[in-house]
Amino acid sequence: MLSDEEFAALLKQREQFERPEHDRWDNAGIRPPQKPTDGLPESTLEQQFAHIAQKLTAVWPSETCALLIRNLIVNDRDSRQGFPQDVVEDLLMLSEINEMRLRKIGLGPASPADSFAKLRKP
User: Fold this and answer.
1) Range of the domain at 62
2) Sign of the alpha-carbon torsion through 78, 81, 82, 85
3) pTM
4) Would you tell me which of 14, 61, 88, 93 could form a disulfide with 101, CB atoms 3.0–4.6 Å apart?
5) Are 111 and 117 in contact (CB under 8 A)?
């Protein structure tokens, strides 16, 4: 056991001791935690057009998703630049998967040909 005087002396000594740099709270070097992923690399759509990927994810799978993909692929305005080829291929693939999922639950077109025709309609 320590006397009150010994405890006060140790406390005063501790207050005067300067802590090493690594003990200070400096969060500058700490990276924020990353979002969990499925382990697969992101597609070009996710990398270059994250806002579109988020919209598709929010309505997946549904008729709304099919309409959104159709509106992205079919250019109704001359002011649009268009997507790179690999993004268009990703969108077409997602369209087919969405249609298959809708058919599975009884909401989509009867055949892939119907699905493609639906994409081409203005």
Assistant:
1) 43-122
2) positive
3) 0.55
4) 61
5) no
Distances (CA, A) of 12 to 1, 5, 7, 20, 23: 18, 11, 9, 18, 19
Q: What are phi and psi of 60, to 5 degrees?
A: -75, 140
In a domain, 80, yes or no: yes
Over residues 2-27, the pLDDT tens digits come to 789 998 888 888 877 766 555 556 66
Scored b (16 or more CB within 10 A) or e, 24-38 reads eeeeeeeeeeeeeee
| Domain count of the fold of the chain | 1
Nearest to 119 by CA among 82, 79, 71: 71
Instruction: Please tell me the total number of residues recorded for the chain in this structure.
Output: 122
Each residue's pLDDT tens digit, 35-94: 777 777 788 898 899 999 999 999 999 999 999 999 999 887 777 788 999 999 999 999
Tokens in use for 33? 């935690």
